[in-house]
Amino acid sequence: MDTKNIQRICGGCTACCKSIAVIEIDKPLGKWCQYCSIGRGCLMYAEKPASCTEFRCEWLKGFGEEKHRPDRTKIILDYTKLVKGGLPGGILQVWEVSEGSLGNAHVKKTTLFALENEIWVAHFPLRGSRSIFVPRSQIVTEEIALVFVENNIAVTDWP
Ligand code: SF4
Ligand code: SF4
Fold this sequence. Notes:
Strand 5 and strand 6 form a beta hairpin.
């Protein structure tokens, strides 16, 4: 996704330490990491897993405004251009930080913006079913459908 040339730091945001899984330390989706000092940072910063070091949400990369930092919007945006199985245009993953936040107007607007720009969008709620939204010009091939089934993601109508 297009981002402005902005240098950002996480600051007081620790949202991904809740929402996203970290395989190296068996941290599941949607649960605070045992090493997180919420709103402050990582208690094992110097030795944190590679996936934590590598993860940069779209806000950190410069997408959106200051007010869209994930601990404020309660959603995390993560865009990947190339995905195994091949989704033309890439995929925007939207992770919920607080229950219900996927229903807010900012998520709807961002989801529609991505779909209109040929980007697939996946919603990951803290509870309940995961959804994938497909750009109108694209089709769900058998290979892609299998990936969705394996990951318990249902193809859903546009918001
Ligand atoms: S969600 Fe983004 S801004 Fe917040 S801690 Fe993670 S990478 Fe940093
Ligand atoms: S190890 Fe540190 S950076 Fe990684 S999820 Fe836990 S608190 Fe966050």
